[in-house]
Amino acid sequence: MPRYGKIVVIRRNGIDGMVYPLTSTSCLFGRRTGCDIRMRLPWVSTEHCKIDINENKEAVLTNLSAVNPTQLNGAGFEQPVLLKHGDVLTIIDRSFRFEYPLQSTPKKRRSRSPKDETLQQVAEVELLHKNPSGAKSLDAS
């Protein structure tokens, strides 16, 4: 069975609690009996939020509660958000940490070759020498 990551419950005292491995491409949080991670609190929505694994094996968090929105790293969000290793999602007063498996953390695709990145850095340094105020001009690439 593939493992897409895990959800770690963060206890109120800050110590890690139960661990839920993500072995399917969706994980539903809420009060409903059929939820993958069920919270039996009256102010938790029946379906509060979900984590879906996309085609790139990245975890995407979607809030499903209008009354008590899910928070990510202490802030609210409106659109689905890509999760990063170590992100903390909070539902009411319960917090959970998302972790990718170490061997399969998605890596950002490079938009440039290493040589292009070096040339870009050199160009930026030259630009700073020409314009010491630090203002950058717009790059057309």
TrEMBL record:
Single GO biological process annotation from the record: regulation of chromosome segregation
InterPro entries, per the entry: FHA_dom, SMAD_FHA_dom_sf
Domain of life: Eukaryota
Signal peptide: none
CDD domains in UniProt: FHA_Ki67
Xref: Pfam families: FHA
GO cellular component, one term: chromosome
Domain called FHA: residue spans: 27-77
Name this protein carries in UniProt: KI67 protein
The organism of origin for this protein: Sylvia atricapilla (blackcap)
